[in-house]
Design goal:
By secondary structure, the protein is an all-alpha fold. The chain is built from 13 helices and no strands.
């Protein structure tokens, strides 16, 4: 390369040669080629085109394997961002994280656990007493009732120990599948389910791993295609990916190593055809 000549860099807007437009043009050309062959061979043109376009399978095992491999390279050792030293602390932090950020919860919990060190300390409270300590996490009245209620249930029915079974965790006030999956996967290292938070919900749809919008159904869809031993790690990786690169308002597609596997309709930069339903 001549000295002083810098290779042309891709524009982040996607409005440049070699990105948006070209993939769609290639698809049009391929459609024409298929039609030409169909007319020549005396085969129904519609059937030929339909067979060609149905070849893409977003949940094909090869594609899933490649997505998991790239996530492992990006986020090899990630875990839950909520700070905790016990199953009880993780349970409380997860309850408080609803409609809040992990950063905000991590600002609240150190003082909270210093003030009330044990589950028995929480069980002895009235919800109103806890409200000032968790006010900044939002929905503090409901969260206070859930935390105190969970503590009382754990002391009364489980000997003061957070249960390690899904069915038992779901009996605790304020605990649904998402919270139970966080505690089971992160603390007890049990892959009983797959956490579906806002990041997993959004990115799973962008990557066409599910077409559903209900978190419970999305979890079932992901459990069918992600190996069980990867459930907990996969959820953590997608959550971190959503925070660092695949940001909701403006994804950093130009920096993303999953870019050529992603056909999301609202990509900010692309080298592949986008799909209108991938969102």
């Amino acid at each position: 390369m001549p000295r002083g000549v810098v290779p042309r860099q891709p524009a982040k807007t996607g409005r440049h040669e070699g990105t948006r437009g070209q993939p769609k043009q290639r698809v049009v050309i391929k459609k024409r080629q298929v039609l030409a062959h169909a007319r020549r061979d005396g085969v129904s043109a519609a059937a030929k085109v339909g067979a060609r376009l149905k070849g893409y399978n977003p949940v094909a095992s090869e594609r899933i394997h490649e997505i998991l491999q790239r996530l492992d390279q990006l986020y090899p050792d990630v875990t839950c961002a909520l700070q905790h030293k016990s199953a009880w602390e993780l349970l409380v932090a997860t309850i408080l994280s609803a409609q809040s950020t992990d950063v905000n919860v991590n600002r609240v919990t150190p003082e909270l656990f210093r003030k009330y060190p044990t589950v028995e300390d929480f069980a002895a409270l009235r919800p109103e007493q806890l409200e000032p300590d968790v006010r900044s996490t939002g929905f503090f009245r409901n969260k206070s009732k859930s935390v105190v209620g969970a503590a009382q249930k754990i002391v009364a029915d489980f000997g003061g120990q957070v249960p390690c079974e899904m069915t038992q965790l779901l009996t605790l006030p304020g605990v649904a599948r998402k919270t139970a999956n966080v505690v089971l996967g992160t603390w007890f290292k049990k892959n009983e389910g797959l956490v579906v938070d806002t990041h997993v919900h959004r990115i799973a749809r962008r990557l066409e791993l599910t077409r559903n919008d209900d978190p419970k159904t999305i979890e079932q869809d992901l459990m069918k295609i992600i190996p069980r031993e990867k459930w907990t790690l996969f959820a953590h990786q997608i959550i971190w990916h959503g925070r660092k690169l695949c940001i909701a308002r403006r994804p950093k597609c130009v920096e993303c190593s999953l870019e050529n596997l992603c056909h999301a309709a609202d990509k900010t930069w692309t080298t592949v055809e986008t799909h209108k339903n991938a969102k």
